[in-house]
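Our consortium's second objective concerns turning raw sequence data into structural hypotheses that experimental partners can test. To show how far this objective has progressed, the report includes one record in full. It was chosen at random from the queue rather than selected for favorable results. The single chain below, 249 residues long, was entered without modification.
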Amino acid sequence: MTDDHALAAELATAAGEVLLRTREEHAGIDPKELKDLGDRVSHDFLMAELAKVRPEDAVLSEEGADDHVRLSAQRVWIVDPLDGTREFSEVERDDWAVHVALWRAGNLVAGAVARPAKGVTYSSADDAPAAGAAGAPLRLAVSRSRPPEFVTRLADHLGADLVEMGSAGVKAMSVLDGTADAYVHAGGQYEWDSAAPVAVARAHGLHTSRIDGSGLVYNNESPYLPDLVICRPEVAETILGAISTVKAN
């Protein structure tokens, strides 16, 4: 049987291939239709594959009805079939992703974030440290379309540069690939937005937490998990201290 790390990577990569074919085959349709189609085909693919290879496991998907049987399950797959629908619908963009994570008995134990248009899948299967070194000034990953006011104030306080990019998974993995030093989100998210990025980030030695420094807890009755920090470990104290100061002012 394929181990869970490898399976997460295989599923995320394969769902990404489905999405690439979908985008190619339906080029020219209305962007909203393409977003909806992408969400649906990737969700259907992942649900079918998980039912086949891990039939006893529960699933929490952004695009599926929330079956609360997961609350008593020992193993729950947490998936975002298409992270960054806006970017997916803009055919020249590659900053969208597929998230696949496994929660087991209280902890995230495996995950993968695929960037299909880049041909890259980040996985919890290895523990290589993040690329590069912390920038001077620090670099914060931020949304290209709607930079949150809180992160803008945080960057001003730190004297940091803002690095604009698309989906949550892309921003999280930018810390791993050395494009950014931290991804701070305080504007509201759900478990599927961060579970796979957090599983991968942890495997590679990055710091992950809520913005108050507390732990990230998954498979809750409500999947709303509003805030997140993923950063290089050597800047975690600086980032969390700055967040506390900015929140207080």
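The partners drew two points from this record. The two ends are 53 Å apart (CA to CA). Residues 198 and 208 are 6 Å apart (CA to CA). Both points have been shared with the crystallography group to help prioritize constructs.
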